[in-house]
Design a protein that fits this description.
Elements lengths: L16 E5 L14 H15 L4 E6 L7 E4 L5 E4 L5 H4 L7 E5 L2 E13 L5 E8 L21 H21 L6 E5 L6 H14 L8 H8 L2 E4 L10 E2 L1 H19 L2 E2 L2 E3 H7 L3 E4 L2 H10 L6 E2 L6 H4 L2 H10 L18 H23 L9 E5 L15 H11 L2 E6 L7 H17 L4 E6 L4 H10 L2 E4 L11 H7 L4 E4 L4 H4 L6 E4 L5 H21 L1 H16 L4 H13 L8 H8 L14
Helix pairs in contact: 1-19, 3-4, 3-6, 4-5, 10-11, 11-14, 11-18, 12-17, 14-15, 15-18
The structure holds pyridoxal-5'-phosphate (PLP).
Length: 598
Amino acid sequence: MSQPVQTASPDLSQRSIAYFSMEIALSPALPTYSGGLGVLAGDTLRSAADTAAPMVAVSLVHRRGYFRQHLDAAGQQTETDVPWSPEETLPGANQTVIIHMNGRDVIVRAWRFDVVGVTGHIIPVFLLDTDVDGNDSWDRHLTDYLYGGDTFYRLCQETILGLGGIHLLHALGCRPDVHHMNEGHAALLSIGLLEERLGNLNGRPVSTASDADFDFVRQQSVFTTHTPVPAGHDQFGRDQMYQVLGHDRASTIERSGALHNGLFNMTYLALRFSRFVNGVAMQHGKVSQHMFPGYAVHSITNGVHAATWLSTPFQALFDHEIPSWRTDNQYLRSVYGITPQQIQETHRIGKQALFDVVQQRTGQQFDPNILTLGFARRVATYKRATLLFSDPARLTAIAEKMGGLQILFAGKAHPADQGGKALIREVFEAAAHLNSSALKIIYLENYDWALGQQLTQGVDVWINTPQRPYEASGTSGMKAALNGVPSLSTLDGWWIEGCAENVTGWAIDDHETIAEEAASLYSKLESAIAPLYKDQTAWARVQQHCIAMNGTFFNTHRMLAQYIGNAYLPPAEVGDLSQLEEFTQQPTNPTVSEPAMA
Ligand SMILES: *Cc1c(COP(=O)(O)O)cnc(C)c1O
Protein backbone atom coordinates (compact mmCIF):
# COMPACT_ATOMS: atom_id res chain seq x y z
CA MET A 1 0.00 0.00 0.00
CA SER A 2 1.08 3.60 -0.44
CA GLN A 3 2.53 5.31 2.60
CA PRO A 4 0.03 7.60 4.27
CA VAL A 5 1.11 11.20 4.66
CA GLN A 6 2.98 11.47 7.95
CA THR A 7 1.89 14.80 9.32
CA ALA A 8 1.21 16.28 12.70
CA SER A 9 -2.37 15.71 13.79
CA PRO A 10 -4.60 18.73 13.23
CA ASP A 11 -5.65 20.66 16.34
CA LEU A 12 -8.21 18.23 17.73
CA SER A 13 -9.74 20.81 20.06
CA GLN A 14 -11.13 22.50 16.94
CA ARG A 15 -12.89 19.39 15.65
CA SER A 16 -16.59 19.73 16.42
CA ILE A 17 -18.02 16.66 14.64
CA ALA A 18 -17.06 13.09 15.60
CA TYR A 19 -18.05 10.30 13.21
CA PHE A 20 -18.21 6.77 14.68
CA SER A 21 -18.41 3.70 12.45
CA MET A 22 -17.62 0.00 13.02
CA GLU A 23 -16.19 -0.19 9.50
CA ILE A 24 -14.54 2.42 7.29
CA ALA A 25 -13.09 1.80 3.81
CA LEU A 26 -9.96 3.94 4.12
CA SER A 27 -7.77 2.58 1.34
CA PRO A 28 -8.12 -0.22 -1.23
CA ALA A 29 -5.20 -1.92 0.53
CA LEU A 30 -6.71 -1.98 4.04
CA PRO A 31 -9.23 -4.69 5.02
CA THR A 32 -11.12 -2.40 7.42
CA TYR A 33 -14.51 -2.65 5.69
CA SER A 34 -16.89 -5.34 4.55
CA GLY A 35 -19.24 -3.62 2.14
CA GLY A 36 -21.66 -0.75 1.63
CA LEU A 37 -21.64 0.62 5.20
CA GLY A 38 -17.85 0.90 5.29
CA VAL A 39 -17.60 2.32 1.79
CA LEU A 40 -20.20 4.94 2.70
CA ALA A 41 -18.26 5.85 5.85
CA GLY A 42 -15.02 6.20 3.88
CA ASP A 43 -16.70 8.24 1.16
CA THR A 44 -18.24 10.51 3.82
CA LEU A 45 -14.80 11.20 5.30
CA ARG A 46 -13.26 11.76 1.88
CA SER A 47 -15.94 14.37 1.16
CA ALA A 48 -15.40 15.89 4.61
CA ALA A 49 -11.69 16.21 3.77
CA ASP A 50 -12.38 17.75 0.34
CA THR A 51 -14.83 20.28 1.76
CA ALA A 52 -12.75 21.03 4.90
CA ALA A 53 -15.37 19.90 7.44
CA PRO A 54 -14.21 20.06 11.10
CA MET A 55 -14.50 16.31 11.55
CA VAL A 56 -12.68 13.49 13.29
CA ALA A 57 -13.53 9.78 13.06
CA VAL A 58 -13.30 6.61 15.16
CA SER A 59 -13.34 2.94 14.17
CA LEU A 60 -11.55 -0.31 15.09
CA VAL A 61 -8.24 -1.41 13.58
CA HIS A 62 -9.42 -4.90 12.44
CA ARG A 63 -5.93 -6.42 12.34
CA ARG A 64 -7.13 -9.59 10.61
CA GLY A 65 -9.63 -7.73 8.48
CA TYR A 66 -12.73 -8.80 6.69
CA PHE A 67 -11.95 -11.97 4.72
CA ARG A 68 -10.60 -12.67 1.28
CA GLN A 69 -13.04 -14.77 -0.75
CA HIS A 70 -12.01 -17.89 -2.68
CA LEU A 71 -14.41 -19.68 -5.02
CA ASP A 72 -13.81 -23.15 -6.41
CA ALA A 73 -15.11 -24.39 -9.78
CA ALA A 74 -18.55 -25.06 -8.28
CA GLY A 75 -18.79 -21.66 -6.62
CA GLN A 76 -18.09 -23.02 -3.14
CA GLN A 77 -16.82 -20.11 -1.03
CA THR A 78 -13.92 -20.39 1.40
CA GLU A 79 -12.31 -17.57 3.32
CA THR A 80 -8.86 -16.50 4.47
CA ASP A 81 -7.83 -13.70 6.84
CA VAL A 82 -6.29 -10.49 5.52
CA PRO A 83 -3.77 -9.64 8.25
CA TRP A 84 -2.11 -6.22 8.34
CA SER A 85 0.12 -4.35 10.77
CA PRO A 86 -0.73 -0.75 11.53
CA GLU A 87 2.67 -0.34 13.19
CA GLU A 88 4.32 -0.63 9.78
CA THR A 89 2.36 2.15 8.15
CA LEU A 90 0.50 4.39 10.60
CA PRO A 91 1.50 6.80 13.36
CA GLY A 92 0.26 5.90 16.84
CA ALA A 93 -1.91 8.31 18.81
CA ASN A 94 0.51 8.26 21.81
CA GLN A 95 -2.43 7.93 24.10
CA THR A 96 -4.15 5.01 25.75
CA VAL A 97 -7.35 4.76 27.76
CA ILE A 98 -8.58 2.02 30.06
CA ILE A 99 -12.07 0.60 29.71
CA HIS A 100 -13.43 -1.53 32.50
CA MET A 101 -15.42 -4.36 30.92
CA ASN A 102 -16.06 -8.05 31.64
CA GLY A 103 -14.96 -7.28 35.20
CA ARG A 104 -11.42 -6.31 34.19
CA ASP A 105 -9.49 -3.44 32.69
CA VAL A 106 -8.78 -3.36 28.96
CA ILE A 107 -6.14 -0.99 27.62
CA VAL A 108 -7.15 0.65 24.35
CA ARG A 109 -4.72 2.48 22.10
CA ALA A 110 -5.22 3.97 18.64
CA TRP A 111 -3.55 4.35 15.28
CA ARG A 112 -4.11 7.46 13.21
CA PHE A 113 -5.04 7.26 9.55
CA ASP A 114 -5.24 10.62 7.79
CA VAL A 115 -7.85 11.07 5.10
CA VAL A 116 -6.37 13.90 3.05
CA GLY A 117 -8.66 16.10 0.96
CA VAL A 118 -8.04 17.71 -2.40
CA THR A 119 -6.82 20.95 -0.77
CA GLY A 120 -4.80 19.17 1.94
CA HIS A 121 -7.38 19.30 4.75
CA ILE A 122 -7.01 16.26 7.01
CA ILE A 123 -9.69 14.14 8.68
CA PRO A 124 -7.87 12.08 11.32
CA VAL A 125 -9.35 8.61 11.83
CA PHE A 126 -8.50 6.86 15.10
CA LEU A 127 -8.41 3.07 14.73
CA LEU A 128 -8.82 1.54 18.18
CA ASP A 129 -6.60 -1.41 19.08
CA THR A 130 -6.54 -3.71 22.12
CA ASP A 131 -3.51 -5.76 21.01
CA VAL A 132 -1.49 -4.14 23.78
CA ASP A 133 1.02 -5.57 26.31
CA GLY A 134 -0.69 -5.89 29.65
CA ASN A 135 -4.07 -6.91 28.26
CA ASP A 136 -5.56 -10.32 28.92
CA SER A 137 -4.67 -12.57 25.95
CA TRP A 138 -8.34 -12.93 24.91
CA ASP A 139 -8.85 -9.16 25.04
CA ARG A 140 -5.85 -8.65 22.76
CA HIS A 141 -7.86 -10.18 19.92
CA LEU A 142 -10.99 -8.06 20.40
CA THR A 143 -10.10 -5.67 17.58
CA ASP A 144 -8.97 -8.37 15.10
CA TYR A 145 -12.03 -9.45 13.11
CA LEU A 146 -14.67 -7.27 11.50
CA TYR A 147 -18.07 -8.94 12.07
CA GLY A 148 -16.33 -12.10 13.30
CA GLY A 149 -17.07 -14.19 16.37
CA ASP A 150 -20.27 -14.52 18.35
CA THR A 151 -22.58 -11.97 19.97
CA PHE A 152 -20.33 -11.79 23.02
CA TYR A 153 -17.33 -10.82 20.85
CA ARG A 154 -19.53 -8.32 19.01
CA LEU A 155 -20.76 -6.65 22.18
CA CYS A 156 -17.18 -6.36 23.42
CA GLN A 157 -16.18 -4.73 20.13
CA GLU A 158 -19.08 -2.30 20.29
CA THR A 159 -18.11 -1.45 23.88
CA ILE A 160 -14.60 -0.60 22.71
CA LEU A 161 -15.90 1.45 19.79
CA GLY A 162 -18.42 3.49 21.78
CA LEU A 163 -16.84 3.83 25.22
CA GLY A 164 -13.22 3.52 24.10
CA GLY A 165 -13.80 5.99 21.27
CA ILE A 166 -15.31 8.71 23.46
CA HIS A 167 -12.71 8.37 26.21
CA LEU A 168 -9.86 8.34 23.72
CA LEU A 169 -11.09 11.49 21.96
CA HIS A 170 -11.44 13.25 25.31
CA ALA A 171 -7.96 12.10 26.38
CA LEU A 172 -6.64 13.61 23.14
CA GLY A 173 -8.24 16.95 23.95
CA CYS A 174 -11.06 16.54 21.43
CA ARG A 175 -14.52 17.58 22.71
CA PRO A 176 -16.89 17.46 19.74
CA ASP A 177 -20.29 19.17 19.78
CA VAL A 178 -21.85 16.46 17.62
CA HIS A 179 -21.36 12.68 17.64
CA HIS A 180 -22.63 10.82 14.60
CA MET A 181 -23.45 7.13 15.14
CA ASN A 182 -23.12 5.54 11.72
CA GLU A 183 -25.43 2.57 12.45
CA GLY A 184 -26.30 1.22 15.91
CA HIS A 185 -22.87 -0.42 16.43
CA ALA A 186 -21.64 2.91 17.81
CA ALA A 187 -24.57 3.52 20.18
CA LEU A 188 -22.55 2.93 23.36
CA LEU A 189 -20.85 6.25 22.75
CA SER A 190 -23.87 7.67 24.57
CA ILE A 191 -22.80 5.87 27.75
CA GLY A 192 -19.25 7.12 27.18
CA LEU A 193 -20.59 10.68 27.04
CA LEU A 194 -22.56 10.13 30.25
CA GLU A 195 -19.42 8.79 31.95
CA GLU A 196 -17.42 11.82 30.84
CA ARG A 197 -20.12 14.16 32.08
CA LEU A 198 -20.54 12.55 35.49
CA GLY A 199 -16.92 11.52 35.89
CA ASN A 200 -15.61 14.93 34.98
CA LEU A 201 -17.91 16.75 37.35
CA ASN A 202 -17.57 14.69 40.49
CA GLY A 203 -16.91 11.09 39.60
CA ARG A 204 -20.47 9.82 40.07
CA PRO A 205 -21.52 6.42 38.68
CA VAL A 206 -23.64 6.68 35.53
CA SER A 207 -26.57 5.03 37.30
CA THR A 208 -27.04 8.33 39.13
CA ALA A 209 -27.53 10.19 35.84
CA SER A 210 -30.59 12.43 35.82
CA ASP A 211 -33.01 13.09 32.97
CA ALA A 212 -31.12 16.33 32.42
CA ASP A 213 -27.90 14.32 32.00
CA PHE A 214 -29.63 12.03 29.50
CA ASP A 215 -30.84 15.06 27.59
CA PHE A 216 -27.38 16.62 27.66
CA VAL A 217 -26.05 13.55 25.81
CA ARG A 218 -29.04 13.47 23.51
CA GLN A 219 -28.43 17.04 22.38
CA GLN A 220 -24.95 16.04 21.16
CA SER A 221 -25.81 12.95 19.16
CA VAL A 222 -27.08 12.08 15.71
CA PHE A 223 -27.99 8.58 14.53
CA THR A 224 -28.22 7.07 11.07
CA THR A 225 -29.99 3.72 10.75
CA HIS A 226 -29.06 1.65 7.70
CA THR A 227 -31.31 -1.35 7.36
CA PRO A 228 -35.02 -2.06 7.24
CA VAL A 229 -34.27 -5.76 7.92
CA PRO A 230 -35.01 -6.37 11.63
CA ALA A 231 -32.24 -9.02 11.84
CA GLY A 232 -29.80 -6.33 10.79
CA HIS A 233 -30.30 -4.51 14.11
CA ASP A 234 -27.85 -5.71 16.78
CA GLN A 235 -29.45 -7.26 19.85
CA PHE A 236 -27.84 -8.83 22.89
CA GLY A 237 -29.11 -10.82 25.83
CA ARG A 238 -29.75 -8.86 29.02
CA ASP A 239 -27.36 -11.09 30.97
CA GLN A 240 -24.67 -10.56 28.38
CA MET A 241 -25.14 -6.81 28.68
CA TYR A 242 -24.67 -6.99 32.47
CA GLN A 243 -21.66 -9.30 32.07
CA VAL A 244 -19.81 -7.12 29.56
CA LEU A 245 -20.77 -3.64 30.72
CA GLY A 246 -21.17 -4.17 34.45
CA HIS A 247 -24.11 -3.31 36.68
CA ASP A 248 -23.71 0.46 36.76
CA ARG A 249 -23.82 0.94 32.99
CA ALA A 250 -26.20 -1.91 32.26
CA SER A 251 -28.82 -0.72 34.75
CA THR A 252 -28.55 2.77 33.25
CA ILE A 253 -29.14 1.37 29.77
CA GLU A 254 -32.12 -0.57 31.06
CA ARG A 255 -33.53 2.60 32.65
CA SER A 256 -33.01 4.53 29.40
CA GLY A 257 -35.46 2.26 27.56
CA ALA A 258 -32.94 0.55 25.27
CA LEU A 259 -34.28 -2.94 25.99
CA HIS A 260 -36.69 -4.14 23.34
CA ASN A 261 -38.57 -7.43 23.69
CA GLY A 262 -36.34 -8.18 26.64
CA LEU A 263 -33.14 -7.77 24.61
CA PHE A 264 -30.52 -5.03 24.68
CA ASN A 265 -31.12 -3.39 21.31
CA MET A 266 -28.41 -1.10 19.94
CA THR A 267 -30.84 0.68 17.65
CA TYR A 268 -33.11 1.61 20.57
CA LEU A 269 -30.11 2.81 22.56
CA ALA A 270 -29.11 5.02 19.62
CA LEU A 271 -32.68 6.29 19.17
CA ARG A 272 -33.00 7.06 22.85
CA PHE A 273 -29.83 9.16 22.88
CA SER A 274 -30.06 11.06 19.57
CA ARG A 275 -31.65 14.40 18.82
CA PHE A 276 -31.71 13.67 15.07
CA VAL A 277 -32.37 10.29 13.45
CA ASN A 278 -32.37 9.47 9.77
CA GLY A 279 -32.68 6.74 7.19
CA VAL A 280 -30.47 6.66 4.11
CA ALA A 281 -32.97 7.30 1.29
CA MET A 282 -36.38 8.97 1.23
CA GLN A 283 -38.30 5.68 1.29
CA HIS A 284 -36.00 4.14 3.89
CA GLY A 285 -36.71 7.07 6.20
CA LYS A 286 -40.42 6.34 5.89
CA VAL A 287 -39.99 2.61 6.44
CA SER A 288 -37.84 3.32 9.50
CA GLN A 289 -40.44 5.77 10.80
CA HIS A 290 -42.92 2.87 10.72
CA MET A 291 -40.49 0.62 12.58
CA PHE A 292 -39.86 3.23 15.28
CA PRO A 293 -43.11 5.15 15.66
CA GLY A 294 -42.04 6.82 18.91
CA TYR A 295 -39.23 8.74 17.24
CA ALA A 296 -39.08 11.30 14.43
CA VAL A 297 -37.11 9.70 11.60
CA HIS A 298 -35.82 11.90 8.79
CA SER A 299 -34.17 10.97 5.50
CA ILE A 300 -30.82 11.92 4.01
CA THR A 301 -30.13 9.98 0.84
CA ASN A 302 -26.71 8.37 0.54
CA GLY A 303 -24.08 9.28 -2.00
CA VAL A 304 -20.63 8.20 -3.17
CA HIS A 305 -17.33 10.08 -3.28
CA ALA A 306 -17.14 11.09 -6.93
CA ALA A 307 -13.35 11.27 -7.25
CA THR A 308 -12.97 7.82 -5.68
CA TRP A 309 -15.39 6.09 -8.02
CA LEU A 310 -14.90 7.92 -11.32
CA SER A 311 -12.57 6.13 -13.73
CA THR A 312 -9.17 7.73 -14.33
CA PRO A 313 -10.16 8.74 -17.90
CA PHE A 314 -13.35 10.45 -16.63
CA GLN A 315 -11.36 12.24 -13.94
CA ALA A 316 -8.95 13.52 -16.58
CA LEU A 317 -11.82 14.64 -18.82
CA PHE A 318 -13.53 16.52 -16.00
CA ASP A 319 -10.28 18.09 -14.76
CA HIS A 320 -9.94 19.49 -18.25
CA GLU A 321 -13.54 20.47 -18.93
CA ILE A 322 -15.13 21.14 -15.53
CA PRO A 323 -12.75 22.99 -13.22
CA SER A 324 -13.67 22.76 -9.52
CA TRP A 325 -15.69 19.54 -9.78
CA ARG A 326 -13.47 17.94 -7.11
CA THR A 327 -14.35 20.47 -4.41
CA ASP A 328 -17.93 21.02 -5.59
CA ASN A 329 -19.57 18.06 -7.34
CA GLN A 330 -22.52 20.20 -8.41
CA TYR A 331 -20.39 21.45 -11.28
CA LEU A 332 -20.76 17.98 -12.79
CA ARG A 333 -24.09 19.21 -14.13
CA SER A 334 -22.11 20.97 -16.85
CA VAL A 335 -21.29 17.57 -18.31
CA TYR A 336 -24.08 18.69 -20.66
CA GLY A 337 -21.43 20.99 -22.14
CA ILE A 338 -19.38 17.95 -23.19
CA THR A 339 -20.49 16.04 -26.27
CA PRO A 340 -22.22 12.70 -25.71
CA GLN A 341 -19.65 11.13 -28.05
CA GLN A 342 -16.82 12.22 -25.76
CA ILE A 343 -18.62 10.70 -22.78
CA GLN A 344 -19.09 7.49 -24.72
CA GLU A 345 -15.45 7.29 -25.78
CA THR A 346 -14.34 7.88 -22.20
CA HIS A 347 -16.64 5.10 -20.98
CA ARG A 348 -15.21 2.78 -23.63
CA ILE A 349 -11.75 3.08 -22.05
CA GLY A 350 -13.21 1.88 -18.75
CA LYS A 351 -14.95 -0.99 -20.51
CA GLN A 352 -11.73 -2.15 -22.11
CA ALA A 353 -9.87 -1.85 -18.79
CA LEU A 354 -12.51 -4.06 -17.15
CA PHE A 355 -12.25 -6.66 -19.90
CA ASP A 356 -8.45 -6.70 -19.48
CA VAL A 357 -9.05 -7.55 -15.81
CA VAL A 358 -11.51 -10.30 -16.80
CA GLN A 359 -8.92 -11.72 -19.21
CA GLN A 360 -6.15 -11.65 -16.58
CA ARG A 361 -8.32 -13.25 -13.91
CA THR A 362 -10.16 -15.87 -15.95
CA GLY A 363 -8.43 -16.16 -19.32
CA GLN A 364 -11.76 -15.35 -20.98
CA GLN A 365 -12.14 -12.80 -23.73
CA PHE A 366 -15.12 -10.41 -23.55
CA ASP A 367 -16.12 -8.40 -26.62
CA PRO A 368 -16.25 -4.60 -26.08
CA ASN A 369 -18.96 -4.23 -28.73
CA ILE A 370 -21.41 -6.45 -26.88
CA LEU A 371 -23.84 -5.20 -24.25
CA THR A 372 -22.48 -6.10 -20.81
CA LEU A 373 -24.47 -6.26 -17.59
CA GLY A 374 -22.96 -6.02 -14.10
CA PHE A 375 -24.32 -7.38 -10.83
CA ALA A 376 -22.08 -7.10 -7.78
CA ARG A 377 -23.07 -6.87 -4.15
CA ARG A 378 -22.93 -8.52 -0.78
CA VAL A 379 -24.71 -11.83 -1.30
CA ALA A 380 -27.74 -11.50 0.95
CA THR A 381 -30.92 -13.41 0.20
CA TYR A 382 -33.10 -10.29 -0.24
CA LYS A 383 -30.81 -9.05 -3.06
CA ARG A 384 -31.96 -12.03 -5.16
CA ALA A 385 -28.81 -12.65 -7.20
CA THR A 386 -30.49 -15.45 -9.17
CA LEU A 387 -33.54 -13.46 -10.33
CA LEU A 388 -31.85 -12.92 -13.68
CA PHE A 389 -31.90 -16.71 -14.22
CA SER A 390 -35.58 -17.28 -13.41
CA ASP A 391 -36.31 -18.12 -17.04
CA PRO A 392 -33.10 -19.42 -18.61
CA ALA A 393 -34.68 -20.10 -22.00
CA ARG A 394 -35.94 -16.54 -22.28
CA LEU A 395 -32.57 -15.09 -21.26
CA THR A 396 -30.83 -17.20 -23.90
CA ALA A 397 -33.37 -16.18 -26.55
CA ILE A 398 -32.83 -12.49 -25.76
CA ALA A 399 -29.05 -12.91 -25.94
CA GLU A 400 -29.31 -14.61 -29.32
CA LYS A 401 -31.69 -11.99 -30.68
CA MET A 402 -29.35 -9.21 -29.54
CA GLY A 403 -26.34 -10.80 -31.19
CA GLY A 404 -24.71 -11.47 -27.84
CA LEU A 405 -24.95 -10.61 -24.15
CA GLN A 406 -22.26 -10.62 -21.45
CA ILE A 407 -22.89 -10.68 -17.69
CA LEU A 408 -20.40 -10.17 -14.87
CA PHE A 409 -21.19 -11.16 -11.29
CA ALA A 410 -19.31 -10.64 -8.04
CA GLY A 411 -20.07 -10.68 -4.33
CA LYS A 412 -19.08 -12.16 -0.97
CA ALA A 413 -21.37 -14.04 1.39
CA HIS A 414 -20.74 -13.59 5.12
CA PRO A 415 -18.79 -16.70 6.28
CA ALA A 416 -21.70 -17.80 8.50
CA ASP A 417 -24.41 -17.19 5.87
CA GLN A 418 -25.11 -20.63 4.39
CA GLY A 419 -28.06 -19.30 2.37
CA GLY A 420 -25.85 -16.67 0.75
CA LYS A 421 -23.18 -19.25 -0.04
CA ALA A 422 -25.80 -21.47 -1.67
CA LEU A 423 -26.85 -18.54 -3.87
CA ILE A 424 -23.30 -18.17 -5.20
CA ARG A 425 -23.28 -21.87 -6.12
CA GLU A 426 -26.63 -21.40 -7.89
CA VAL A 427 -25.23 -18.58 -10.00
CA PHE A 428 -22.27 -20.81 -10.93
CA GLU A 429 -24.61 -23.62 -11.86
CA ALA A 430 -26.83 -21.38 -13.99
CA ALA A 431 -23.78 -19.92 -15.71
CA ALA A 432 -22.43 -23.38 -16.50
CA HIS A 433 -25.73 -24.37 -18.13
CA LEU A 434 -26.27 -21.10 -19.99
CA ASN A 435 -22.81 -20.20 -21.28
CA SER A 436 -22.92 -20.33 -25.07
CA SER A 437 -21.58 -18.40 -28.02
CA ALA A 438 -24.32 -15.78 -27.49
CA LEU A 439 -24.41 -15.61 -23.70
CA LYS A 440 -21.30 -15.30 -21.51
CA ILE A 441 -21.60 -15.25 -17.72
CA ILE A 442 -18.65 -14.98 -15.33
CA TYR A 443 -18.56 -14.73 -11.53
CA LEU A 444 -15.46 -12.83 -10.41
CA GLU A 445 -13.86 -13.71 -7.07
CA ASN A 446 -13.38 -11.42 -4.06
CA TYR A 447 -15.60 -8.38 -4.67
CA ASP A 448 -13.82 -5.46 -3.02
CA TRP A 449 -13.06 -1.77 -3.53
CA ALA A 450 -10.84 -2.28 -6.59
CA LEU A 451 -13.15 -4.75 -8.31
CA GLY A 452 -16.10 -2.49 -7.44
CA GLN A 453 -14.37 0.35 -9.28
CA GLN A 454 -13.53 -1.78 -12.30
CA LEU A 455 -17.07 -3.13 -12.62
CA THR A 456 -18.99 0.12 -12.14
CA GLN A 457 -16.60 1.91 -14.52
CA GLY A 458 -16.73 -0.74 -17.22
CA VAL A 459 -20.11 -2.42 -17.68
CA ASP A 460 -22.93 -0.95 -19.81
CA VAL A 461 -25.89 -1.55 -17.49
CA TRP A 462 -25.90 -2.01 -13.72
CA ILE A 463 -28.44 -4.56 -12.50
CA ASN A 464 -30.04 -4.51 -9.05
CA THR A 465 -32.89 -6.79 -8.03
CA PRO A 466 -33.58 -6.38 -4.29
CA GLN A 467 -36.85 -7.45 -2.79
CA ARG A 468 -38.75 -4.30 -1.82
CA PRO A 469 -38.41 -2.57 0.63
CA TYR A 470 -35.24 -4.20 1.96
CA GLU A 471 -32.66 -2.16 0.07
CA ALA A 472 -32.19 0.85 2.38
CA SER A 473 -30.31 2.78 -0.27
CA GLY A 474 -27.70 0.90 -2.30
CA THR A 475 -24.73 2.86 -3.57
CA SER A 476 -23.09 0.78 -6.30
CA GLY A 477 -25.63 2.05 -8.87
CA MET A 478 -24.56 5.59 -7.95
CA LYS A 479 -20.93 4.71 -8.76
CA ALA A 480 -22.12 3.35 -12.09
CA ALA A 481 -24.19 6.47 -12.84
CA LEU A 482 -21.16 8.72 -12.27
CA ASN A 483 -19.36 6.71 -14.94
CA GLY A 484 -22.21 7.04 -17.42
CA VAL A 485 -23.74 3.64 -16.65
CA PRO A 486 -27.57 3.42 -16.44
CA SER A 487 -29.26 1.03 -13.99
CA LEU A 488 -31.95 -1.59 -14.50
CA SER A 489 -33.34 -2.02 -11.01
CA THR A 490 -36.26 -2.69 -8.75
CA LEU A 491 -37.75 0.60 -7.55
CA ASP A 492 -36.22 0.37 -4.11
CA GLY A 493 -33.77 2.46 -2.08
CA TRP A 494 -32.05 5.27 -3.99
CA TRP A 495 -33.44 4.15 -7.36
CA ILE A 496 -36.90 5.54 -6.51
CA GLU A 497 -35.19 8.94 -6.57
CA GLY A 498 -32.72 8.23 -9.35
CA CYS A 499 -34.79 6.49 -12.03
CA ALA A 500 -36.02 8.59 -14.94
CA GLU A 501 -37.28 5.89 -17.31
CA ASN A 502 -35.30 5.72 -20.57
CA VAL A 503 -33.24 8.71 -19.41
CA THR A 504 -31.09 7.46 -16.50
CA GLY A 505 -32.11 3.80 -16.73
CA TRP A 506 -35.09 1.52 -16.26
CA ALA A 507 -37.34 0.28 -13.47
CA ILE A 508 -38.15 -3.39 -12.93
CA ASP A 509 -41.88 -3.26 -12.21
CA ASP A 510 -43.18 -4.24 -8.82
CA HIS A 511 -45.10 -7.54 -8.85
CA GLU A 512 -46.36 -10.19 -6.46
CA THR A 513 -44.15 -13.02 -7.68
CA ILE A 514 -40.51 -13.43 -8.61
CA ALA A 515 -41.53 -14.84 -11.98
CA GLU A 516 -43.49 -11.69 -12.85
CA GLU A 517 -40.66 -9.42 -11.73
CA ALA A 518 -38.21 -11.44 -13.79
CA ALA A 519 -40.57 -11.12 -16.76
CA SER A 520 -40.49 -7.34 -16.34
CA LEU A 521 -36.68 -7.43 -16.23
CA TYR A 522 -36.55 -9.51 -19.44
CA SER A 523 -39.02 -7.32 -21.28
CA LYS A 524 -37.10 -4.11 -20.39
CA LEU A 525 -33.93 -5.79 -21.57
CA GLU A 526 -35.52 -6.93 -24.81
CA SER A 527 -37.78 -4.01 -25.72
CA ALA A 528 -36.05 -0.96 -24.21
CA ILE A 529 -32.38 -1.66 -23.59
CA ALA A 530 -31.43 -3.79 -26.60
CA PRO A 531 -32.86 -1.39 -29.24
CA LEU A 532 -31.34 1.62 -27.49
CA TYR A 533 -27.92 -0.03 -27.40
CA LYS A 534 -28.14 -0.57 -31.16
CA ASP A 535 -28.52 3.21 -31.52
CA GLN A 536 -25.19 4.27 -30.06
CA THR A 537 -25.97 7.98 -30.50
CA ALA A 538 -29.06 7.65 -28.31
CA TRP A 539 -27.12 5.46 -25.86
CA ALA A 540 -24.45 8.16 -25.50
CA ARG A 541 -27.14 10.67 -24.48
CA VAL A 542 -28.34 8.29 -21.75
CA GLN A 543 -24.73 8.00 -20.52
CA GLN A 544 -24.55 11.79 -20.36
CA HIS A 545 -27.87 12.05 -18.46
CA CYS A 546 -26.63 9.53 -15.89
CA ILE A 547 -23.71 11.76 -14.96
CA ALA A 548 -25.49 15.11 -15.27
CA MET A 549 -28.65 14.12 -13.42
CA ASN A 550 -27.57 11.41 -10.98
CA GLY A 551 -23.83 11.98 -10.59
CA THR A 552 -24.52 15.58 -9.63
CA PHE A 553 -26.86 14.56 -6.81
CA PHE A 554 -25.95 11.07 -5.53
CA ASN A 555 -22.54 12.02 -4.19
CA THR A 556 -21.23 12.40 -0.63
CA HIS A 557 -20.40 16.10 -1.10
CA ARG A 558 -24.15 16.78 -1.38
CA MET A 559 -24.96 14.19 1.29
CA LEU A 560 -22.51 15.66 3.81
CA ALA A 561 -23.82 19.17 3.16
CA GLN A 562 -27.29 17.84 4.05
CA TYR A 563 -25.96 16.25 7.25
CA ILE A 564 -24.28 19.52 8.21
CA GLY A 565 -27.33 21.63 7.40
CA ASN A 566 -30.07 19.35 8.73
CA ALA A 567 -28.46 17.21 11.42
CA TYR A 568 -25.17 18.57 12.77
CA LEU A 569 -25.94 22.29 12.76
CA PRO A 570 -29.67 22.57 12.17
CA PRO A 571 -31.11 26.03 11.77
CA ALA A 572 -33.20 27.17 14.76
CA GLU A 573 -36.81 26.00 14.85
CA VAL A 574 -37.74 27.73 11.58
CA GLY A 575 -39.15 24.49 10.22
CA ASP A 576 -41.66 23.93 13.01
CA LEU A 577 -44.91 23.72 11.04
CA SER A 578 -47.11 23.25 14.10
CA GLN A 579 -46.32 26.80 15.17
CA LEU A 580 -47.13 28.07 11.71
CA GLU A 581 -50.50 26.30 11.80
CA GLU A 582 -51.33 27.81 15.17
CA PHE A 583 -50.46 31.21 13.82
CA THR A 584 -52.57 30.94 10.66
CA GLN A 585 -55.55 29.51 12.54
CA GLN A 586 -55.88 32.62 14.68
CA PRO A 587 -57.00 35.42 12.38
CA THR A 588 -56.22 38.82 13.84
CA ASN A 589 -59.42 40.28 12.48
CA PRO A 590 -62.23 37.72 12.81
CA THR A 591 -64.71 39.91 10.95
CA VAL A 592 -62.82 39.62 7.69
CA SER A 593 -64.17 36.72 5.66
CA GLU A 594 -62.10 34.26 3.63
CA PRO A 595 -60.54 35.92 0.63
CA ALA A 596 -61.89 34.64 -2.66
CA MET A 597 -59.54 32.34 -4.44
CA ALA A 598 -57.75 34.10 -7.24
C1 LIG B 1 -20.19 0.23 -3.25
C2 LIG B 1 -19.83 -1.07 -2.66
C3 LIG B 1 -20.77 -1.79 -1.92
C4 LIG B 1 -22.18 -1.30 -1.69
O1 LIG B 1 -22.96 -1.43 -2.85
P1 LIG B 1 -24.53 -1.75 -2.77
O2 LIG B 1 -25.09 -1.17 -4.01
O3 LIG B 1 -25.05 -1.04 -1.56
O4 LIG B 1 -24.68 -3.21 -2.71
C5 LIG B 1 -20.40 -3.01 -1.39
N1 LIG B 1 -19.17 -3.51 -1.58
C6 LIG B 1 -18.24 -2.85 -2.30
C7 LIG B 1 -16.90 -3.46 -2.48
C8 LIG B 1 -18.53 -1.61 -2.86
O5 LIG B 1 -17.60 -0.96 -3.56
